[in-house]
């Protein structure tokens, strides 16, 4: 006997052919994950049997087939007309009294309120599969109240099987229209209009890094995220630390959330409206840390249950303050992607930045800007076109395969535009805010998603390179090959490169780009006198009762992201090594920095940390590192002291770090020092008694050995790391480190540029060499050749 309805309590993931992917997943979670604390609103599904019988009772199968055979599958020029005819056929049909009666009885059983609000969701039987998500292809109707409205919504869901985007998507994916049915899910309504909602991925959506969960959220209904109508809050959570019970939130990025979508009773055709979000709410995260962690636990539980990365939707009921999972589907972009094969895109020249936003993918595309307000304006688009618009909804989907790139004013990483762009492999920059203002029709532009999570739009045509790298063919050498990093935005992607960890994490980049404010201007904010700087600091530190917490928070998030990306491999963060003129360029910095004739040899590195001029600022650096290591549990992070001139200075820095909570040896904390001053080489054995390891800074060591300012244009030709004196210094440092059994590495360009320099380091017995990402592969090759050469010589000597 055909069954027209199934309650969620009767549904499992095996029922896709009967209730569609969406409903099967909801039933599976309702039955299997509720015991783990995952809240899923109760409901029931109208089965595919009901849909097929609806078609037969209204004699619609043959007419639908006739209409769809007329579709132009080459250009889809008549897609609008075909879709409209198919939907009108469905809407003109009549639901049987048997089906209507069963739906009304089940609806009454959902609540004591006979007119309770429900969500009515379409769920196709070829939906939410690992190879095809069908995201946004079919319609959902929210806050439906009353039996008549519910039956009307059911029929509209049936009709949405033939939206233009769904027809084209099925055709491109090879699904036969006549074999796909539409189930409808009816579910207790979560009043997110009075609360908040969002989406999440159990994998980093750009890189495919599997150890993080990305959640995003807005006030009100989540459709604003899907449409990209607002820029949402974003939260990155680190799974291994989540499992250990430590504080797992790596990053929190506040979106503007300028609009809040709520329900409207005024119009049946427009059941929702957007209202302006009050300014205090814009400046408030939609989720507390506790709620972020709760959702992360649920997302992790869902992923473990399905044994694959998942794309989820969540909502918070503003009336009850309860969180719910309202949908979960397999993530489709990275599911079957070869992680060993990577195409590296690199800009070969600089250009004028016209706009920037959230990068989707890692490609670079040169093309012609096409400004469009609606899909109907699109004509004769090609792969050389980059279309620019305010925001993208599913109605745009049929166009997206025809173009070379996408730029939107609105939207975050989890908006519909971003999801579909990833799935199609089209580079996109979303959330640019003013793209449609600064970009002009027919302009030649360069769209770059190759520089981390921020995408840039450049004026004109810039040259760029593409290089395909197969990591599976790269053999790691005995000498450790590490990376030099600064930008957290690139960390997840770069973690896939063959590596032994991070030998140098430059803190300065994070301070410059994320913190932006001089730490002493936060410690002594009352002493900042410049009106503009006061306003800038006030704006940046909104939401922080203590301005010093802003510095700790922002710096720790940047450091933690890189430490997590390479966890559990060693990541060595260098304490701030700005020179005074560079510190002065930070907001509020000029008031706290002395003027020096030669900052390169002045008040920098270790000397600052115990000085009264900077000691309180250094305390904030230590607090950020302590938070990463102890609160967040990323104990793979180690610390390095730069430009330490004397033994006494080294002892002072280690002592003050202990005073600020970073005790050498506690929880495995290791403190390294840079070897970049001749005194570090001459007294290397004594420095080994103070520090746990050395890292040779070949640039400064060469500079101070040869007496050459490496920034001098006049003296640049004499600066050479291959100079015998510079190499002698390096050789001495390595020999002392080996004598004292102290780990020693080198950070610099020379070992990748010059194979003979790599051979020299390997022969001397260095433990590790760190490279910039673009030089890493060549550097590994040079080390392998050096080791092979030395081994061959040794074998020859033995045979003689």
Description:
The chain is elongated, with a radius of gyration of 30 Å. The model is unreliable at 128-134 (pLDDT under 50). The chain is built from 30 helices and 30 strands. The chain folds into 5 domains: 5-189, 2-Layer Sandwich (Dna Ligase, domain 1); 193-330, 2-Layer Sandwich (D-amino Acid Aminotransferase, Chain A, domain 1), CATH 3.30.470; 341-469, Phosphohistidine domain (Glucose Oxidase, domain 1), CATH 3.50.30.10; 480-669, TIM Barrel (Alpha-Beta Barrel), CATH 3.20.20.60; 673-766 and 773-800, Phosphoenolpyruvate-binding domains (TIM Barrel), CATH 3.20.20.60. It starts with a strand and ends with a helix. Strands 23-24-25-26-27-28-29-30 form an 8-stranded parallel barrel, surrounded by 7 helices. The chain has a 7-stranded mixed beta barrel with strand order 15-19-18-17-16-20-21. Strands 9-8-7-6-12-13 form a 6-stranded antiparallel beta sheet. The protein has 800 residues and is α/β, with parallel strands linked by helices. The longest helix is centred in the last third of the chain and has 27 residues, at 773-799.
């Amino acid at each position: 006997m055909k069954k027209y309805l199934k309650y969620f309590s009767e549904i499992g993931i095996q029922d896709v052919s009967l209730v569609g992917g969406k409903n099967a997943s909801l039933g599976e979670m309702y039955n299997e994950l509720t015991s783990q604390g995952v809240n899923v609103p109760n409901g029931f599904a109208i089965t595919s049997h009901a849909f097929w019988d609806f078609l037969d009772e209204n004699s619609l199968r043959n007419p639908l087939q006739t209409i769809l055979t007329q579709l132009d599958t080459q250009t889809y020029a008549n897609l609008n007309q075909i879709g409209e005819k198919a939907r009108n056929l469905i809407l003109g049909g009549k639901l049987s009294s048997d089906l209507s009666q069963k739906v009304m009885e089940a609806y009454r059983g959902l609540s004591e309120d006979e007119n309770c609000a429900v969500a009515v969701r379409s769920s196709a039987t070829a939906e939410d599969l690992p190879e095809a998500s069908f995201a946004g292809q079919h319609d959902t109707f929210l806050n439906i109240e009353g039996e008549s409205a519910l039956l009307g919504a059911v029929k509209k869901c049936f009709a949405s099987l033939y939206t233009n985007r769904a027809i084209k998507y099925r055709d491109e994916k090879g699904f036969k229209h006549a074999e796909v049915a539409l189930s409808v899910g009816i579910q207790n309504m979560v009043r997110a209009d009075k609360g908040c909602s969002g989406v999440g991925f159990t994998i980093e959506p750009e890189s495919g890094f599997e150890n993080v969960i990305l959640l995003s959220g807005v006030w009100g209904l989540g459709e604003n995220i899907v449409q990209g109508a607002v820029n949402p809050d974003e939260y990155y959570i680190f799974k291994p630390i989540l499992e250990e019970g430590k504080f797992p939130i790596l990053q929190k990025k506040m979106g503007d959330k300028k609009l809040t979508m709520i329900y409207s009773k005024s119009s049946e055709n427009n059941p929702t409206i957007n209202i302006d979000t009050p300014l205090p709410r814009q400046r408030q995260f939609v989720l507390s840390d506790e709620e972020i962690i709760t959702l992360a636990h649920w997302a992790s539980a869902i992923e473990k249950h399905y044994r694959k990365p998942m794309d989820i939707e969540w909502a918070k009921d503003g009336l009850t303050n309860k969180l719910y999972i309202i949908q979960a589907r397999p993530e489709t972009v990275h599911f079957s992607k070869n992680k060993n094969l990577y195409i590296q895109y690199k800009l070969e020249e600089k250009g004028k930045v016209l706009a920037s936003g959230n990068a989707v993918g890692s490609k670079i595309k040169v093309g012609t800007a096409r400004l469009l307000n609606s899909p109907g304006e699109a004509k004769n688009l090609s792969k050389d076109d980059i279309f620019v618009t305010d925001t993208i909804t599913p109605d745009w989907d049929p166009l997206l395969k025809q173009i070379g790139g996408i730029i939107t004013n609105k939207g975050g990483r989890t908006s519909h535009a971003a999801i579909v762009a990833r799935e199609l492999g089209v580079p996109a920059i979303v959330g640019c805010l003013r793209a449609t203002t600064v970009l002009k029709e027919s302009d030649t532009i360069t769209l770059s998603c190759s520089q981390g999570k921020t995408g840039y739009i450049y004026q004109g045509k810039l040259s760029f390179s593409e290089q395909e790298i197969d990591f599976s063919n790269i053999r790691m050498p005995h000498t450790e090959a590490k990376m030099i990093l600064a930008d957290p935005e690139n960390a997840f992607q770069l973690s896939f490169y063959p590596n032994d960890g991070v030998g140098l994490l430059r803190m300065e980049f994070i301070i410059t780009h994320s913190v932006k404010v001089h730490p002493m201007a936060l410690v002594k904010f009352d002493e900042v006198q410049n009106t503009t700087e006061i306003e800038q600091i006030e704006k940046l530190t909104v939401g922080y009762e203590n301005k010093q917490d802003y510095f700790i928070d922002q710096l720790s998030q940047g450091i933690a992201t890189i430490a997590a990306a390479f966890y559990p491999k060693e990541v060595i963060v260098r304490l701030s090594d700005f020179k005074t003129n560079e510190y002065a360029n930070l907001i509020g910095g000029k008031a706290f920095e002395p003027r020096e004739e030669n900052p390169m040899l002045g008040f920098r590195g270790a000397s600052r940390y115990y000085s009264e001029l900077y000691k309180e600022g250094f305390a904030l650096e230590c607090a950020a590192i302590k938070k990463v290591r102890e609160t967040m549990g990323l104990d793979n992070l180690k610390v390095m002291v730069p430009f330490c001139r004397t033994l006494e200075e080294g002892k002072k820095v280690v002592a003050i770090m202990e005073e600020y909570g970073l005790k050498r040896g506690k929880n495995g904390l290791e403190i390294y020092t840079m070897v970049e001053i001749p005194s570090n080489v001459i007294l290397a054995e004594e420095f080994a008694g103070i520090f746990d390891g050395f890292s040779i800074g070949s640039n400064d060591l060469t500079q101070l050995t040869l007496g050459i300012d490496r920034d001098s244009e006049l003296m640049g030709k004499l600066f050479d790391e291959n100079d015998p004196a510079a190499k002698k210094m390096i050789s001495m440092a390595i020999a002392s480190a080996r004598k004292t059994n102290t780990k020693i590495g080198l950070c610099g360009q020379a070992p990748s540029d010059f194979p003979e320099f790599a051979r020299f380091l390997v022969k001397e017995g260095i433990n590790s060499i760190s490279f910039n990402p673009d030089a890493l592969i060549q550097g590994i090759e040079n080390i392998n050749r050096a080791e092979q050469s030395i081994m061959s010589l040794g074998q020859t000597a033995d045979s003689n």
